[in-house]
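Mannosyltransferase, Ptilorrhoa leucosticta. Tokens?
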Amino acid sequence: AGSAMVARALWALLAALRAGWCLLPQSGYLHPDEFFQAPEVMAGDILNLQVYYPWEFLSSSPCRTVVFPLMTSGVTYWVIKSLQQLDMCSSCVNSYTLLVSPRLLFTIFSFILDYSVYRLAPSWGADPWKALVLLAGSYVTLVFYTRTFTNTLEGLLFALLMVLVSSRKSSGSSAEPTSSSLIGVITTAGFFNRPTFLAFALMPLLYWASLIVDSQKSIKTLINHFLKLILCACFTAIVFITADTFYFTSVSLDNLYSTNKSSLIDVIAQLHEKMVVTPFNFLSYNLNPHNLALHGSHPRVTHFTVNGVMLFGILHILAIGAGFKMLKKYVHQLMLVRWCYHGPPGLLVHSEGSPTLLLFYFVPLAFLSLFSHQEPRFLIPLILPLVLFSASPNRAVKWKLLLVLFNLLGALLFGCLHQGGLIPCLFHLEQLIHSPASSSHPRHYTLLFAHTYMPPRSLLNIKKTDVHVEVIDMAGSGEETLCQTVEQRARNFTCSDCHIFIIIPGTVRATITKCGVSFRNETLIFPHLSMEDPPQIPVLSSGNWRSQLGLYILELNRDH
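Tokens:
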């Protein structure tokens, strides 16, 4: 009882940390997709801000559904826009609210994971509060599940699917009949969010089907379950396809009727011609090895040997060890059964919880490993079966200190340091651009970003009609290209109210000094760690370490 009370208090503390750190906000920048798969697009569509639309959201190549961005970032931006229009908040739209409001919604949604763990733990022989502490204390939950990734939504839908397929009557003998429809809806929604969701859904669906087959005596009832699932899946798919078609093709029913008044059949035919099915476009693009190579190719074992350890640490290693033991035991059991002619051993329904949870963990991992492009965030949905497996009695107890240190390091690295200067830099520039002096006397700003992640332009809070701000993203350009661009801008530095800012990490600060220009102001934002241009260890040990772990905002000197 005492340990349970301590676990509850610890979970409450970690839950408060999750919400508080979101509001602070977290400065770490994990990957451009956390902005460019939802918030950036919705800021342009709903708030009419200058943004960069990624290729997946262009009408020429629609590969992402717009439904989830509208339901998440779209809703939050609509709320703050409405508050401002109603004069309930004069400056609701600013860099802070643009960053934090979608993240806060995702943070609230992240507690679906906690609910799922609490519901699932008894069914899988895990200690509920031990599992909740493992979940809430993981830096994956604290950092990744509070960010606006499609992978985050994938993890939440996977958790709900596991709850539905594991729900049982009080006797624990059969699945809830009412879950068939919801399973169809969630599976289809997950597929439209990310087609890779099918890799996560495979084992839960097989487990659910085996429970249905094992518990139902009537063929009619069995068919009824599967029909409900298929019908609801089809209905959900129609909703997504319709929404995406209207968004990407700008189809208007009024226009359709005005251009073709003959019949409703002709209208439907036109809609069919313009129909957008984003998952198929996504699969068509990603199944091409050449396209995947553009985003980076990795060895097929990267998820198993690197990404799993990077996200989950010792829990991933222990799961691999348990998996090999389970496989060895199962092969031995299979040989015995064949020798004794007793029939095939049941692995899904009739075995204890841990082997099945390992399948829930490793089967998606194996399917995702078939693709050459492998990023750590692709695995974050697997935290649910992993913590349930790890929270079984006497498992992972002796690794407490290592787990704490690992998650502290992960939270510091990804929540604070990784590209950590870019978001505060955009906050600073937004305040500068919208300062009273700039508002009373318009100035022209040129913002040149080099050797940073893509800057989300929405955080600058610039209207599409505003032509006084120009953003140039040089990405990882070489020294010669960078200097040519800077020198060209310096030569064209003619207007008296023009300001040119160069944003560059401290590790490549010396490159700019070779470009033959001078600067009137230097602002250092600390901390900022660029893994693409990492600081050298000898330099870090010198007195220059703060500069190496910082991001510079350099204002070009017009008198040079």
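Residues 421-556 form one domain.
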